[in-house]
Amino acid sequence: MTDAFSFNDDLGPLKVIHVNIPKHNVKGILVVDNVAAGPSIGGLRMAPDVTLAECFRLARSMTMKNAAAGLQHGGGKSVIVGDPHMSHAEKEPMIRAFAKALAGEQHYIFGPDMGTDEQCMAWVKDEIGRAVGLPRAIGGIPLDELGATGFGLAVSADVAIDYCDFELDGAPLAVQGFGSVGMHAARFLMQKGVQLVAAADSQGTLFDPNGIDVEALIAHKKSRQSVTTFGTGKVLPPDAVIGVDCDIWIPAARPDVINMGNYQNFKAKLILQGANIPITLEAERKLEESGVLIVPDFIANAGGVICAAMEYHGQTQTGAFAAISEKISHNAREVLERAKREHGTTREAAVRLASERVRAAMATRRFGVF
Fold first, then answer.
1. Residue 114 maps to which CATH number?
2. Residue 257: inside a domain, yes or no?
3. CA quadruple 280, 337, 163, 199: dihedral positive or negative?
4. pLDDT confidence of residue 237
5. Burial letters for 117-129: b for 16+ Cβ neighbours within 10 Å, e otherwise?
6. What is the mean pLDDT of the chain?
7. pLDDT above 90 covers what percent of the chain?
């Protein structure tokens, strides 16, 4: 369904705005979900098949993520229909026009996401003065360049391993979506002894049970090459990464990549969700029932938005990474302990944790929102 009213509940959304600018070939959506804790922060995503339903689900995930992290911000998300691989020259007029159309929406602060980066946020900042994840040259903390989200995933792994029957040192890792989040997660986990055995992008999966040189693969990807042309290992179809024999699996691309049609192929013991909503709720429950430990998206991948919020409030890079480590470590342990104590799923525990914090913030505001 695409009817905005289908998604309403007591938390939001506060507003849904459709943007259509034919002159610049812009079709986009903004969902501001909840702003009880403060103005919403959420990324601007570009993809050819984004929908209102996806935008709302991502906005709600940001509400949960920001609340769980204890940030003074609510959740929102914006999307533009377009090819995320188009050149900066092609993206610039589209993103500038989209930002300008939303100049009056003070409840929303733009951040980078799939298909957008620090340069895109610089254009938004130039147009409306309201963006985070900015280039270093204009005072930002470039969270994608530094790998803030990937760093947070490695922090969550440090906590989750206490609930697993294997060690991080030597653990085989598969990454679905070897982009800005996936590659940095692999890099930070490699420093803990984890061994990358599979990496996938839209062109295919690179598999090598003997291990893949992470730094060399990152350099290869940064030269705008697919993992499939790396030159070593075996090349498999993109979806084959789901069934790779490994201990740790990181989804770092689009929503719902694991679902009821493919979850039976899964072999990993621990999932650190680098993407937002990467597994359908039904498949997530089935995986947990089979013994897979899952650290949910808005707990595990909060590093990027924590970094963005710290930037927005004038913190340094050192301060931002310290906050990521502290907040994700605390919240991951609290969620895993609560799930264990209450005999429920980790997502149920995470949603309860975040919802309690959102409602506590709403109780302090007139009419619950403003």
1. 3.40.50.10860
2. yes
3. positive
4. 97
5. bbebbbbbbebbe
6. 94
7. 93
**pLDDT tens, position by position, 66-88:** 999 999 999 999 999 999 999 99
Task: Please enumerate in sequence order all residues whose Cβ is within 8 A of that of 305, keeping only pairs 6 or more positions apart, or say none.
Answer: 41, 42, 62, 65, 66, 69, 71, 73, 111
Q: Are residues 203 and 342 in the same domain?
A: yes
Distances (CA, A) of 283 to 74, 273, 356: 28, 14, 25
Q: Tell me which residue range forms the domain holding 249.
A: 148-303+331-353
Q: Is the pLDDT of residue 3 over 60?
A: no
Label residue 45 left, alpha or beta by phi (over 0 means left) and psi (-120 to 50 means alpha): beta
Q: Which of 268, 6, 359 is nearest to 278 (CA)?
A: 268
Distances from the Cα of 306 to the Cαs of 132, 146, 314, in angstroms? 11, 13, 12
Q: From the candidates 77, 91, 221, 327, which is the catalytic residue?
A: 77
Separation between Cα atoms, residue 42 and residue 300, nearest integer Å = 16
- What does 35-91 look like in DSSP terms, one character per residue? -TTSSEEEEEEEETT--HHHHHHHHHHHHHHHHHTT-S--EEEEEEES-TTS-HHHH
Question: Rounded to two decimals, what is the model's pTM?
Answer: 0.90
- Secondary structure percentages of the chain, helix, strand, coil, to 5: 45, 20, 35
pLDDT, residue 4, reads 47
77 is catalytic: yes
The total number of structural domains in the chain stands at 2
- How far is Cα 36 from Cα 15, in angstroms, rounded to an integer? 13
6: pLDDT confidence band, cut at 50, 70 and 90? low
C-alpha 334/C-alpha 331 separation (Å) is 5
Statement to judge: residues 39 and 132 lie in one domain: yes
In a domain, 311, yes or no: no
Kindly report, residue by residue over 293-338, the tens digit of the pLDDT: 999 999 999 999 999 999 999 999 999 999 999 999 999 999 999 9
CA distance to 35, 128, 258, 369, per residue, from 39 (Å):
5, 15, 32, 11
What is the Cα–Cα distance from 175 to 170, expressed in whole angstroms?
16
Longest Cα pair distance anywhere in the chain, in angstroms? 60
Lowest mean pLDDT among 155-159, 252-256, 333-337: 252-256
Mean pLDDT of 354-360: 95
